[in-house]
Write a structure and sequence with these properties.
Blueprint: H1 2-32, H2 37-49, H3 53-61, H4 67-76, H5 83-102, H6 105-136, H7 142-206
Helix pairs in contact: 1-6, 1-7, 2-3, 2-7, 3-4, 4-5, 4-7, 5-7, 6-7
Length: about 210
């Protein structure tokens, strides 16, 4: 029975690592890299159309840790240059931001697989130990020993699946949010290019 208990230790360690990783990713994605994109872009649009690029950059600085403002700021900093240069600046900023959104998320999928395998390994090891104990036990105690051994062996599968299911659920949850932010960056980057083009046309007509 002791062997079955020891076989649960890797599952507990993997589960603890998964919990820490989930909290780190949740805080990073939801509180630091995320922003209300619609209200943010409304403020940017207001400043850009008023030809107040400094004001738009200040709006970006107000949420400088978030993904979208960092990309938008890169475009605004090149607003007086050609459209290709603006696009290059946006692309360069996006290449810096997107890996931060997706960082460590693949580990959650790996944890789900590893926890399942550890659970299966613990169950098989526990069953082997139980049958070995039964073969050497008193006939009157064999049924009780076997029942207890099988119960403890199945416990490894249970905890392995609990960790795996939790890791899979949060992997999907966090990946969906990360992809949503990436989509917002792509969408509003295009809108920024349109805004800057409209600003140039308006500025030219005023001259």
């Amino acid at each position: 029975m002791e062997h079955v208990d020891l076989s649960l230790i890797p599952i507990y360690l993997v589960g603890a690592f998964a919990i820490g990783l989930i909290f780190e990713r949740y805080i990073k994605i939801y509180t630091k890299l995320s922003i209300n994109s619609n209200s943010f872009m409304f403020e940017i649009q207001k400043h850009v159309l008023a030809n107040d690029l400094d004001g738009a950059i200040r709006v970006c600085n107000g949420a400088k840790d978030a993904a979208l403002p960092r990309v938008i700021k890169a475009g605004l900093m090149r607003a007086s240059r050609s459209e290709d240069q603006i696009q290059n600046a946006i692309d360069s900023a996006s290449l810096e931001v997107i890996p931060q959104l997706e960082k460590n998320l693949p580990f959650l999928a790996l944890i789900a697989n590893v926890a399942t395998l550890f659970g299966l390994l613990g169950t098989i090891s526990g069953l082997i130990t139980s049958f070995q104990a039964v073969s050497m036990a008193d006939p009157a105690q064999r049924q009780a020993i076997l029942s207890q051994g099988i119960s403890m062996a199945m416990n490894a599968t249970k905890w392995g699946l609990i960790v795996a299911i939790g890791a899979m659920v949060f992997h999907s949850f966090l990946s969906a949010k990360a992809q949503s932010i990436v989509g917002e960056v792509d969408e509003h980057s295009v809108k920024l290019l349109d805004l800057l083009s409209a600003r140039k046309v308006q500025h030219s007509s005023e001259k």
